[in-house]
Amino acid sequence: SKDHDTNNPRFHIPLPLFSRVEHIKQEMTRDNIHFIRFEATDLHGVSRSKSIPARFFPEKAIHGISIPRGYLELTLNPKDSEVDHLSVTSFNSDIILIPELSTFRPLPWAERTARVICDPFTIMGNPLLTSPRHIAKRQLSHLRDRGFSLLSAFTYEFCIYGVAEVIDSKTISFPMGMLLSSHDQLFIQELVDGMYHMGVNIESFSSSIGPGQMEVTFWPEFGITSADNAFTFRTGSKEVAKKYNYLASFFTETGFYNSGILAHSLWDTSGRKNLFSTGSRVQQLTDIGKKWLTGLLKHSAALSCLMAPAVSCRKRYSVDFKEPKECVAPTWGYNDNSCSYNIKCHGEKGTQIENKLGSATANPYLVLAATIAAGLDGIQSENNFLDNSGDSENLAQTKSSEIPLKLEDALVALGEDKCLREALGDTFIHYFVAMKQYELENEETESERNKFLEYFI
Description:
By secondary structure, this protein is of the alpha+beta class. The chain is built from 12 helices and 19 strands. Helix 7 (300-307) packs across helix 9 (407-416), helix 8 crosses helix 10 (418-424) and helix 9 packs antiparallel against helix 11. The chain is globular.
């Protein structure tokens, strides 16, 4: 039908966009693609999608696809669309998902299906201000305006469980203890190979500390691609696991922690010079690297709210302390994996800072955006925690840099952090804080907690 053809005269399409859509049509024919999944991240970093038959793709690629706003702005319980202290009329409205066509990829593990990552807009054409991907892209734009670019990669821990069994009326999933044994090799290989064909380059994978726990590290990429890769992996790993009757979970339960690390370095806009690296083999940050680290340390309290956004995520902050504490100081060091910020000067990637405040539950777009905002503030600020300290690890501590152990206190810190409020936007901060307060005020029962785990699985 001409109604779904880009040759229809009622479409007025810029030539580059028209050429890209035509190229994708050829790809779909070649790869026998019959369905396209339009995906966007919700506040938790979980994929929300709507699929269409391939014949509608040319039109939807231009005009987008509508989706209820409440699908992306949701609480922990998908049945609840109300958040205390917020007007909820917006939950009843539609928004438009506009695809970023450079992210179009056939899904290796889904028959005749492709996927494209989208940005949400209001029906008036304005970006959705609570969109984590929009916020991250805006921070990357600020970075470019100042003559910088960011090379980054996530490292995730996640758990593989067997299919849930009902035992004595309780739903229980057993971890797969010998993940890299011979009978699991097919699952691992399909996951790594499938991700590569999706444009997600996994540098390494291994068993981790816990039973059924894996660690995976991505190859670093410039710009939004690192967060896109993490988002793609979080969804794809769950889908591939289900093919093998496993369940993949990034959720952190009490006593069992899945970390989410963002390794990153600052470069010039050409991507040729690492601005953290002194060029020598000594363990030392450049002056601009020290300022960036100062910004991370200064905003650690607010950063922790976005990077460890659940009560169970925050208990690891106090694991080294016998006495109960309300907050702990962020730490940094060279080649020290116990620190909040681990500076690595070895390897082919050059000097990089690992932001280790995060859990795998955190939204990768928010982690990327907040890290950039904090680092940029350090560069622009005259205050430097590292001044007159040489490169010793004795940090001049300030109360504002301390990390609250309670999520309630971290929410206060986020709300009071003027830099992150301005960077992420008052609309987002207001919504995020209200959503988390709602979650805290409505603690789940055991059965509801299992539903919550399924949500993140």
